[in-house]
What we know:
Distance between the termini: 59 Å
CATH architecture of the domain at 440-520: Orthogonal Bundle
Largest sheet: 5 strands, parallel
Number of helices: 24
Strand content: 5-15%
Mean pLDDT: 93
Strand order of the largest sheet: 3-2-1-9-10
Radius of gyration: 29 Å
Amino acid sequence: MTAMRDAALASKAWPFEEARRLLRRCEAGPPEKGHVLFQTGYGPSGLPHIGTFGEVARTTMVRRAFELISDIPTKLVCFSDDVDGLRKVPDNVPNKEQMQEDMNLPLTRVRDPFGTHESFAAHNNARLRAFLDDFGFEYDFVSATDAYRSGRFDDILLTALERFDSIMEVMLPTLGADRQSTYSPFLPISPKSGHVLQVPTLERNVPAGTIVYEEPDGERIEIPVTGGNVKMQWKPDWGMRWAALEVDYEMFGKDLIPSAELSSRICRALGTRPPELLHYELFNDEHGQKISKSKGNGLSLEDWLAYAAPESLAYFMYLKPRTAKRLYFDVIPKAVDEYHQQLRAYEGQDDAARLVNPVYHVHSGDVPSSNLIVPYSMLLNLASVSGAEDKDRLWGFIKRYAPDAAPDTHPDLDTAVGFAVAYFNDLVRPHRTYRAPAGKERAALEDLKARLDSWDGDTDAEEIQSMVYAVGREHGFDPLRDWFKALYEVLLGSSQGPRFGVFIALYGIGETTALIEQALEGELA
Length: 525
């Protein structure tokens, strides 16, 4: 453990860089609360999306890295801002008319459009927690509704009331003239309508811990800022939460950088040091548009898990958090194959190399072995040419290539086979586009078929690959990738594909010659 800790203290893997920054925060000793607190925030105004999972996964990676270099205990809080008022009906929910009737109510009072929980927030919180639990995250879930109502925030809310002017000094310069005239960091929850009201604070009674505001009907009402009678505006709320919970570390999307800066200033105004912060780049969909909970674009948690194991998703989340990445269906096979490549590499690495291997952070150091002897992308191509509708058909090809492989001895492979069949039937089959061979492509394919027909060697993938290369060179393909692109488009209906020698070894020489014959006869295009 000492050698591993020494390696971690020097590692350039980004979770260790973040962990060391957090360790410097604790140079004077452990926090008085006895642990370092990590937080992730979640707004349940829309359905949980894949970015929410990514934030928890990445925060957990930093947490585990910190635990390797420090003996200070840690906790992770997943905080749901479910007192927030419903300001917009999401695009991807049923019963929109019912939700429209509940506008401006706290999310925990908005009726669940799905009809499965007591509120919209409860529904979305349950979905988030179920996924995090399935993945095995260790966290404490905190509901803003519970925190406000239970009195957990009371002391810091009274401090905020006392330092009202300091908070306003932070916020007012960021607002337009009209908003400045009506802004208050406190949002009363109307005892008459139940709505979260965006109204000015007309009077403050610091000794009594109350504010006075005006209802939409003109009545002036005095309410305590404690006991769940108000919530704070979003940026003051974030800073207040950091102060109340004594948060030490939080990460957030790049679009929240200005908000985080203001919340940090408010946290200081409340007499508390803000946490160490990391901003990450946002995911885009296949068209380069920001993924949105309310729009429901991009991939959902369920989408990824329908076609790949969750470890591959965690691997994707690990990669370059400060680099924008597109997140759509096509990235899944690549992420799966890269994840297993890193698993295989891990076994022969020393401590320093293991600590920068993404799978160390995906598995918190308890890294399994991989038995995915056929890449996911190859399985997809086998499914495509064979029209596989079930796992047994793909396993028939695999057994030819690796006779000793079986579902019970190669569970990773068996799982990937099932995912590949689903991916092919759902996402590939409806969109395959074959084309007829053009020009010298036809002659090259005829040559390749003739050589395969007369092949009398072993089905060695490398030997076959060399022969395929030779055909491309002899028929004047320059660069050679144009030859392989032609093979993929003509035979597989795709612009990219597998290492072709391995594909032939798996699919079979006879089957491949039959496939080429179909293409030459115009039966595929």
